[in-house]
Structure formats: structure tokens, C-alpha cells
Amino acid sequence: MAPQLTIRPGHPLFLDLPWSSSIADWDLPILLDLPKGISRHEVRFLSFPEGTYVVKELSTALAHNDYAVLRSLEAVGAPAVHAVGIVDNRAPDRTSEHSAALITAYEPFSFSYREMLAGPGFGARRSQLLDAFAGLLVELHLAGCFWGDCSLSNVLYRFDAEAIETVMVDAETARMYEEDLTDGQRAEDLEIMIENVAGGMADIAAEAGADLDQADLELGYDIALRYENLWAELGQTTRIRVDERFRVTERVERLNRLGFDVEEVDLLPSLDDTSEMIIKVRVGNRNFHTNRLKALTGIDALENQAKAILADVHYFSARHSDSATTKSTLATRWRATEFEPMMSTLTALAGVSDPIQAYCDVLNHRYHLARSLGTDVSTLDALADWLASGRPGYPFAYV
Fold this sequence. Notes:
alpha+beta
């Protein structure tokens, strides 16, 4: 029986690949040697004119579950890799390791947690990585996804301005629920995460020849605590007086600052005090600033990158606004005179493959430079000083 391909529109057809053989045996000119984390399945990277793709071979049941969950997460805007296609009938035995293959889009500028641990600046970035990991699990649970195999290895990481973004990679064991996850399901997922993270840290210590006592086996508990704090923040109910409706706006803005869109706000009468009301909110995706930047300027960026760039738009607008100029006009002028020229300059620099992140590093450098000088600094002057200072930030993010 010939392999059967199901491919989403807008991507290569992948018909000419030798699907009947294991991808471990492929020797093709389009194969790329890219960094990857530890995986229990064979993974290869392919280069096409349409982009870079990841092929993972696994049993038929696991491949179909992985594909279905990733499609569901994409539909609700959750942070997971994008499923592109699935290949069936690669082997007569549907339970064999290479009976099927999952094709996903490659996540640009991403890296594994092992690269993060080995790279520069991990000490300063440790808290950001744990916050990002906890935030990812919160977002998946809000989307009704029980992961079942949450670990550091099953996540990709990207620098996102002065923060880190996390993206779910493996969804083989995950399950989607239409209703909210129960507290028991969430607790089970956290227990699995704690155990898996401890195992990953023990492996790293062993590979480094370090004693097991030196492994950061408590890392998973730290992530779980951050998860619980964020979950409590999102799920808390707030009591207000009937004449304090302005506090609804305050609650929404607080969640927006955390990056979450607010889908619904319920104002419920208090059963024990008729002079009070209870605020309950239902949060959506953690893309509030990404969506705002896209709507205002047409620029696509990660959540914290978008927050930094929006601050630059506001900074520009404050210096150039007048009563006759609209916000959208100022944003257009900013993009034409500030953003696009800077992006061209950064793109032309050797070693900078992620100009959006580099732009955010320049903005951060501009802020600290202005504070040290006690006066405003132009972005061009900040760029010159950033380059002269050795591009402070995280250089391996640009490789």
C-alpha cells in the first residue's frame, strides 16, 4: 500500500520524498542540520522554497493524535507549533515507529532548553524561562488541553524582547476537552511536569559528569509555584461596590498587562451584600499586545516584542503629535521613518537573522543609555552605541 499524504493548503505537497523508508535513512539535498532537543522519535528538517519544515515519524495513532491536538490548539490561538500535514501507510504495521509521519512548520529563531542552559546569560534569564514555561502550561489549560507529557524537552523557546516565549512541540499524549479542565486534571499535569523536569535536569547533570546532588531537581516545583500564582491571578473574583464599576476597567487592564486578552466580563450581584457586585472574567490568548501592534501598524511580533515596539510607537507619537494628527497617521509615520529604516540596517548586519529581536534589544539599550545620560537618546545613536558596546543582549538569539 502506497503512503497516503494529507497536506494543508499553502505548503509543498511533499510527494517526492521517500516516505516508504525511515527518515533516519534519508539522504536528500534539502535536509538541514538544525539544533534540536532530545526526542524519543526520529526528527529531520527539510528546506523548501515555501519555508523550513520538521518531519517526525511515529506510530499511526500517536501521529493522528498529535496532528489533531495541534490543529485544535491553532484554532484557538494557543502557543503550539503549526501542523502542516500527516503521512499514513508508511509501513504495514500501524504500531511501528515509522508507520506514520507528522509534518510541522519550523519555528524560526527557536532553540531547545539545553541550548539555553549552555548559552550566555542563562543565570539572568532563568526566572524568565520558568515564568514562560509556567505561562505556557496555563495557556494550554485555559484552552482545554491536558498535556500528559509536559517537559522541558517538549517545548521550544524564543527570545521575546526582554522575556522568553515558549511553544509546545509534542502533543502525542495530549487531549483536548470542550469543558474546562478539572482541578484534578491540572494537578496531574503539574505532577507529570515536575517529574519530567527533574528527570531532564538529572540527565544534564549526568552528561556534565556532575553529582546528582548538584542537579536542579527542584526546578519543576518552582515552575509549579509560578503556575499556581498565575492561575490564581487569572481566576480570582473581585468584589466591588455598585458605584465602583471603574474597577472593571482596572481588572481588565491588569490582565492585559500580563498579555491576556479578556473575552468576557461578568458582573454578578453579591448574594450576601446587595451593595456589592462580583467581577468574573474569562481570559483568552496571551496575545494582547501582539494583536494591538498588528492592528495599529501591521507588524507581526511576539507578545513582549510587541509590547516594547508599542512603547516605541507611543514614544514617537508623544514627540510628534498635534491636535490634527490621528493615532493611525502617527503610527504610519513611525513605521516609515523609524521602524523600516532600522529594520533594513539591522537585517544587513552580519549575524543578525532575527531583526525584530535585535530592534527590541536596541530599544532596551536606548532606554538604559538615556537613563545613564539623563537625557533622551535617538534610536540611531542608541544603535551606534549598541554596536560599539558589542551588541549587549543575547547574541546567540540571532544565529
